[in-house]
Amino acid sequence: MKEQSPATLDRSGLRALWLGLGALLLTLFFAPAGVIAGVAAVVVAVKARRKATGPTPGAVAGLLMGLVGALFSTMILAMTAFLWTELSGYQECLLTANTNTDEQACKDTWLPRMEDRLNMPRGSLNEYGDLL
What we know:
This protein is mostly helical. It is built from five helices and no strands. The protein folds into two domains: about 5-80, no CATH class; about 85-125, no CATH class. It has helices at about 5-30, 30-50, 60-80, 85-95, 100-115. Helix 1 (about 5-30) packs antiparallel against helix 2 (about 30-50). The radius of gyration is 21 Å and the shape is elongated. The N and C termini lie far apart (about 50 Å).
């Protein structure tokens, strides 16, 4: 097997760091890509730490950021799957709404369904209705 130089090991730790940072950022915009980047960061960081004979800058931070990014992305995907019926119904309702009154009717119909599904008190999601 070919020996790696210390410079290659340093770069693999930094690769893990960048992948971990990418996982955190992608989680906000596209959760499936956040999971992929997070898992990649963990794999690269673990390989870098195992093959290292000295310090591996960025590997531990990349490992932690990759784990957090993958965890949050997975939680977002699970919540989306759990609320799929309510979220898609709400979005379809908003697409057909022509006035502010129609939009409010969509909120009044679909937000209580989401609250019931999540076992939340009535009115808990009213302040977040514009974000959904």
